[in-house]
Amino acid sequence: MQQIELDFSTFPFTFEIKRSRRKTLVIYVKEGKVEVRAPLKASEKWIGSFLADKSAWIQAQLRQQRQKKQEALRLVDGSRIEVLGQTLTLQVALGRQSWAQRSGGTVTLFVRAAHKDKLEKAFMDWLLTEAQRYMPARVEYYARKLGLAHKLKAVTFRRTRTKWGHCCQDGTIQFNWLVMMAPPAVLEYLIAHETSHLRHLNHSKKFWETVGSLCPDYKQHRDWLSDHGHRLWPA
Ligand SMILES: [Zn+2]
Q1: What are phi and psi for residue 90, nearest 5 degrees?
Q2: Which pLDDT score, from 0 to 100, does residue 120 have?
Q3: For 11-50, how does the pLDDT look when each residue is reduced to its tens digit (9 = 90+)?
Q4: Were 207 and a residue from 3, 80, 195, 200 both cysteine, which residue would form a disulfide, CB within 3.0 to 4.6 Å?
């Protein structure tokens, strides 16, 4: 890794150049940072004009990433979160073990120290338990509605960045339990979506017809997940 200071003072962003045995230039904008991957011998002029060409796009990406970060979930004392459509207030308390407990509209996170990762763990474990209590029964409900209960093998949970749910060929359906904080209609859509994969293991027209039979407004909820799903991830 090499930080090269190019005299591109006109650029409204900083960037890092990584050279390697590659033939083309490519720009990555990730977590608020700009990285240019360049061939070993790429001239600064080439890199500079490439960056100039992509400048508007890079700035739009940076803006979007900043905004998403601001909108991300904050797990601190007094935060308000929505779970299954109910607004809950987080309370932080010191305790010997990391765990959480809900009482009425308050979820108390007991942690040994109010560190971000400890709060996150206490909260995530609690939310996972809520998801395990709620979501498998909803999957069974939709599976029965489709006459596919016999195809359902298991409902499992995993916090994956790339997708909210997944259905395996063997009939195991997996969810990212953060979706419990989505609006209830969106959560229902996701459950209907994954359950419909018990019939069609693809995203064909027939698959979407099945989803639509369970959830007529599915397009709107699908859009919500792609537009706002980042709000459900901790900052
Ligand atoms: Zn799918």
Answers
A1: -85, 140
A2: 94
A3: 889 899 999 999 999 999 998 899 999 999 999 999 999 9
A4: 200
221 C-alpha to ligand 1 centroid (Å): 13
Tokens representing 97 are 């073990």
Question: What kind of fold does domain 80-232 have according to CATH?
Answer: Zincin-like (3.30.2010)
User: How many CB atoms neighbour CB 52 within 10 A?
Assistant: 12
Q: How far apart are CA 152 and CA 225, in angstroms?
A: 24
- What is the CA(225)–ligand 1 centre distance, in A? 13
pTM of the predicted model, to two decimals?
0.82
Token digits of residue 224:
């919500």
Angle, helices 184-196 vs 116-145, to 10°: value is 60
Domain ranges for the chain: 15-71, 80-232
φ/ψ of 169, rounded to 5, equals -60, -30
pLDDT at residue number 212: 98
Distance 203 CA to ligand 1 centre (A): 6
The residue assigned the tokens 């700009």 is: 34
Using CA atoms, how far apart are residues 226 and 197, in angstroms rounded to an integer? 19
Q: What is the DSSP string of 69-103?
A: HHHSB--STT-EEEETTEEEEEEEEE-SS-EEEEE
pLDDT the model gives residue 53: 92
CA–centroid distance, 166 to ligand 1, in Å, is 6
Q: How far is the CA of 125 from the centre of ligand 1 (A)?
A: 26
- For residue 137, the CA-to-ligand 1 centroid distance in Å is 19
Distance of CA 110 to the CA centre of its chain: 25
Q: Give every residue of the chain whose pLDDT is below 50, as ranges.
A: 1, 3
